[in-house]
Each structure stands twice: as C-alpha cells, then as structure tokens.
Amino acid sequence: MKRILGDRLPSLFGTPLCPKGSEIVQDRPHKLSNSKKTKEYFEQEMTKALSAARSAITPQGLVVVVYAHKTTAAWETLVQALLGAGLTVSASWPLHTEMTGGMVKVGKAVLASSIFLVCRRRRLDAGVGVWDDVRQELKRVAQERLDFFWKQGIRGADFFISAIGPALSVFGKYERVTKLSGEEVTVGQFLDEVRSLVTSFALTKILKTTHTGTIDPESRFYVVWNWSYGNAKVPADESFKLAQALGMVSEALWDKTGVLEKSGENVQAMPISKRTKIKNLREPSATGAPASLIDVLHRMCAFREKGDAQGMAQFLNRSGHANNHSLWLIAQAVSEILPDGDKEKQLMQGLLNQKEGLVEATRQGELF
C-alpha cells in the first residue's frame, strides 16, 4: 500500500517501510549487539499489548493470538504474557501455515503449523487452583485433544506444541495455581507437565504399546527425538526438557558414546555413520548394567554394514537382549520414523528382516 498510495496519501504513508523501533521481539544477544530487547522486554511489552486487546473487547469478545515457535522457552514467555494480561484460552487449533521448502529451513527444526489460540477474558472470580486437581484435569483434557490431533495427522514438533493450547485452557482459567504447600506453580513447571503428558502419549502411539516403562530412557529419548526433530539442529535446552520428561540426565546424551552431538548451543542426533564407528559400543559392562536398546541396535547395524552375520549374532547373545521383544519394537519404530533413503532406516529394516534368524540362532546357541 505504501508503494502504491504513498505519493497520493503521504500523511498516512510517510513512515519507514517497516518501522522496527517499537516492534515486540526478543533479539538474540551477541557481542556486536547493544539491543535491550531481552526476554524480559518481550514479556513486558507483550503483556501490555495483550492487556490493551483485553480492554478493547466486550465481556463476550475474543482475542485470537497466532504463534509459532519450536522451543518451549519461547512459549513460556508468551504464556506468561497471556496470563499476565488476564486472558485465558478457550480453544486452540494447530493449522498448517508454513511452506516446507526453502534453503533457510535446511537442517533446522521448523514447524509446519502455527497455533491459533482463541482467548477470552479470565473471570474476575477465577480463584486459586490446586495443582493436584489441575494435573488430573490436564491429563483428561490433554488425552482427548492429543487423540484428536493424532487422528488429524499432526506429528513431530508440531504435536508437542499443539498440546499447549488445550492444556492452557485448564491452567489459565485460574488466577493462579498452587501446590498443597502454598507454593505457586510456575509457567515453566506447567509446561514441563505438558511435555511429560505429550511424551508418554506419543511413545505409546509410536511404539504401538502401552508398556513403554520397560524400555530404557535413552532408547525412548532417541525414538521421540527422531520423531520430533529428525536430524535437525535444535537448541540444547530442548534436549534438557525432553530428557527431564523421561527421567534422565541429558548430559549423558552427548558424551563420547551418546546419541546426540553438541555444536555450540545446539544439538542434533548423531548420524548412524558415526555411531557405528564407536569402538566396542555397548559391550556388556563390568558392573552388569544392561545396555540401552538403541546402543545394541546401532552395534548390530555396524555388524550388518560389514556383512558380519556371525559377529552380529554373537553380540546379540552377549548383550542379554536376545529375547527382549522391546528391542525389535525400537527397531520398527526407528525404521518407520526416518525418511525413505536414510541410511539408518535401511540398516534397521535389514535387521528386522533378519530378526527371525537371529532370534532362532541365539535360542539354539548356533552362531551362523
């Protein structure tokens, strides 16, 4: 409009093409920047903007917020602003709004969806919620909406983010939520609970079993991580949060034998080409601690890549997982998650094709 009508209506279109001074953003800090647009700035100014929107609507009016971000840290800031503005979510919808191509998206964890949050004024008599009761309601609402979103074909990082809106409709209807001790539940704790619920739900769907508790945390992490992010680079903080949801220490994920590799502030899944070259990956430990299923599978992939069927069977027998059905559940899940043409997918499919022969060999003590 500025380019078409600027010369005819100069009083309306005399500003810079895209004024940035008052834009509500959070700038990434670096040594060449003196920007004061921090996380606190974003939250403070967004609260002001949403408060103004709340004041402008009638008691029955709606404020619709469209937001897309792959990290829960960014969502924590937005949720804090929404609650601070006296708004509560009454409905939410993930809608596919993003193009899947483009060079800027290569190797990055990007969302295909934006989340449309339909908000209303929070009731003046909202009161205080008790965290134990709120958690039970969160579980019920999340289960119903996650089941619906799954049937609609929403997957990966989009699936995690899609759960925030329905969960916020429960958490945000109260003026605040407290534990029995009187301690107030933070937005970060609320989002941790949501992530835990989504992780459990996704695992049962991906692995096609409700008995995921028998699978070691590292293998569960690997499946969910690949399902969510593939080989994309993701802020390390997201790996912390996912590991926490699975009850594990995230730093162990990127040690010399970990399933992730760290580069600066980002992490990504370690390529199978590197994992298969780790010497003696997951040989039985001196303490007798069981190996993670994903490590056992990756070691078997190394044998398969070399065409060493005898070595593969011997290792499977040593691993103690020869009769563990969950080993093949993980192999099947990884082979289904990864894209066609992926080297790890091909190796996992090969292992699955050899499954009966391997199991039979270890059962009879025969080593090909």
Structure description:
With 368 residues, the protein is mostly helical. 48% of the residues lie in helices and 11% in strands. The chain has 14 helices and eight strands. It has helices at 2-5, 39-56, 72-84, 131-151, 156-162, 164-171, 187-207, 217-229, 236-245, 272-275, 293-305, 309-319, 325-337, 343-364; strands spanning 63-67, 87-96, 113-121, 128-130, 176-178, 234-235, 260-263, 266-269. The strands form three sheets. The protein has a three-stranded antiparallel β-sheet with strand order 1-3-2. Strand 7 and strand 8 (266-269) form a beta hairpin. Helix 13 (325-337) packs antiparallel against helix 14. The radius of gyration is 25 Å and the shape is elongated. The model is unreliable at 102-107 (pLDDT under 50).
Short structural description:
With 368 residues, the chain is mainly α. The protein is built from 14 helices and eight strands. It has a three-stranded antiparallel β-sheet. A three-stranded antiparallel β-sheet has the order 6-8-7. Strands 4-5 form a two-stranded parallel ribbon.
List keywords for this structure.
single chain, 368 residues, 3-stranded antiparallel β-sheet, 14 helices, 11% strand, elongated
The fraction of residues in strands falls at 5-15%
Average pLDDT level: 86
Regions with pLDDT < 50 over 5+ consecutive residues?
Answer: 102-107
Taking all Cα atoms into account, the compactness measure Rg is: 25 Å
Distance between the amino and carboxyl termini = 74 Å
Helix content: 40-55%
Bulk shape? elongated
Question: How many beta-strand runs?
Answer: 8
Count of discrete alpha- or pi-helical segments spanning 4 or more residues: 14
